[in-house]
Design goal:
This protein is of the alpha/beta class and 213 residues long. It has seven helices and ten strands. A six-stranded mixed beta sheet has the order 6-7-8-3-9-10, with helices on both faces. The protein has a four-stranded antiparallel beta sheet with strand order 2-1-4-5. The two termini are 28 Å apart.
Length: 213
C-alpha cells in the first residue's frame, strides 16, 4: 500500500485551510502531524478518508484517486476528532454492531482488541456511562479490531491514563512492524516525536517536515 497526496488544497467559503500539500506514505512507517488546534490537521485526515473533497488535488491509494472514484480508501480505519457511539449500547455491543457490517471478525477478536486498549473490564458498561478516556479507548479499539492496513488517529491519547498510553504506544509500534501505514495527529509534539519516523508541522494550512534530532 502506498498513499500519495498531490497538490492538495482545501478552502471553506474561499478561506484556505490547506495549501498545496504534497505527501507520500509508505508501509511500515509511522507519520506524525503536529500543530495547534485549527491548524488544518483534522481537515487533512478527513480528506485522506474522503470525508471532505479537496478543492483541488489528488488523493491516491495505490494509484487510484479516491476522490474521482467517489469511494472510501481501502483497508483503512480512522478516529478523527471525538469518538461517537450509540449511548444505550455497551462498549462491546457497539463494536459488535460495527463488526457485523463486513463480518471480518468475531466476538473473540473484539474482546482481544478491548484488552489491547485496557477496556475489557468496562466492555459491558453502557457507552453513556463511559468517561472521556474510556470513549477514546473504544474509538481506538474500533480502528484496530479489523486489522486494517492503514491506521489514522487524531489526538489518540486524549483523556487516556498514562498506563494505557504506554501500552498503546507499544501496540502502534507492533502494528508498524507488521507493515502498516500509521498516521497520527496531535497538538502535543512529545506524543508524536516518541513514535513517528517522520514528523510534519502544520501551521495555517502549510505542512513542512520537522527534522528530528
Amino acid at each position: 500500500m502506498k498513499i500519495r497526496l498531490i497538490n492538495v488544497s482545501k478552502e471553506f467559503k474561499k478561506i484556505p485551510v490547506l495549501k498545496n500539500v504534497n505527501l507520500e506514505f509508505e508501509e511500515g512507517k509511522i507519520y506524525g502531524f503536529v500543530g495547534r488546534n485549527g491548524s488544518g490537521k483534522s481537515v487533512l485526515l478527513k480528506i485522506m478518508c474522503n470525508f471532505y473533497e479537496p478543492t483541488i488535488g489528488e488523493v491516491l491509494y495505490d494509484g487510484v484517486d479516491i476522490v474521482k472514484a467517489k469511494t472510501y480508501p481501502p483497508e483503512t480505519r480512522a478516529l478523527i476528532e471525538s469518538p461517537s457511539f450509540l449511548p444505550d449500547l455497551t462498549g462491546f455491543e457497539n463494536l459488535k454492531l460495527l463488526a457485523a457490517i463486513q463480518h471480518k471478525i468475531g466476538d473473540e477478536d473484539i474482546v482481544k482488541t478491548l484488552k489491547l486498549v485496557n477496556l475489557d473490564d468496562e466492555m459491558n458498561k453502557k457507552y453513556s456511562n463511559y468517561s472521556l478516556g474510556m470513549k477514546q479507548k473504544l474509538g481506538i479499539a474500533q480502528v484496530l479490531m479489523e486489522n486494517p492496513k492503514v491506521i489514522i488517529l487524531d489526538e489518540p491519547f486524549n483523556g487516556v491514563e498514562n498506563e494505557t498510553v504506554k501500552k498503546l504506544r507499544k501496540v502502534l509500534l507492533d502494528e508498524k512492524e507488521k507493515g502498516k501505514i500509521i498516521i497520527l495527529a496531535s497538538h502535543i509534539k512529545d506524543d508524536i516525536e516518541e513514535l513517528a519516523d517522520v514528523v510534519y508541522e502544520v501551521d495555517a494550512g502549510v505542512i513542512t517536515e520537522f527534522k528530528k534530532n
